[in-house]
Write a structure and sequence with these properties.
By secondary structure, the protein is an all-alpha fold. It has helices spanning 2-28, 35-58, 62-68, 73-93. The protein is 84% helix and 0% strand. The chain has one domain (2-93). The chain is built from four helices and no strands. The mean pLDDT is 90.
Amino acid sequence: MRAIKTLFFFYRKIIIPALTLSFLLPLFAAGLISFLAGVGVSFVLLLPLFHYLGYEIRYPNEYYFYYNLGFSRFALWGLTVGIGLLVGTVMLLI
């Protein structure tokens, strides 16, 4: 349970802006691809981008906090890419 709370705390900084922009970007590409496919593709690209900007550029020392709770930088990056691919694949299949 503690691990889920920790991951929720980690992802709440990056998931909201990534989802917001993922729903806005396909509106500008109307007619080129379906809306849900556009949301999926943009989410796959934006989630790692926001992870990089938020935790590698702006707050790099927060990795120590998550490391002390049992999550390495590699594990957090793996989860970010995995969640992005999972949500993107689901959106493409709908």
